[in-house]
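A.,

Following up on our hallway conversation. Structure tokens first:
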């Protein structure tokens, strides 16, 4: 089950591939046949099986802050002891 997903601002991406190198799930690749408005081959998110863990390594290493990571939040149920 997916714990997260990412959005890449492809218009700002310079295709440095740092995000590709740190993604342990291999969910990011450089788009070889596409150019962005700046003339670079941008990174693209490829996750058909929804395997993103939401680890944020790609966003942290991106020098141009082009990657936003979204994590799914599950409610935490905490038990409380009640004194009677």
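Then the amino acids I'd put at each of the 84 positions:
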């Amino acid at each position: 089950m997916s714990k997260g997903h990412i959005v890449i601002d492809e218009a700002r991406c310079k295709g440095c591939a740092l995000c590709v190198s740190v993604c342990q799930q291999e969910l990011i690749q450089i788009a070889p046949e596409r150019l962005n408005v700046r003339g670079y081959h941008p990174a693209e998110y490829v996750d058909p099986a929804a395997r993103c863990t939401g680890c944020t390594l790609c966003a942290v290493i991106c020098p141009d802050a082009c990657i936003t990571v979204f994590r799914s939040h599950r409610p935490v149920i905490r038990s409380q002891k009640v004194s009677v």
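The domain at 4-71 is CATH 3.30.70.20 (Alpha-Beta Plaits). Curious whether your intuition agrees with the design.

B.
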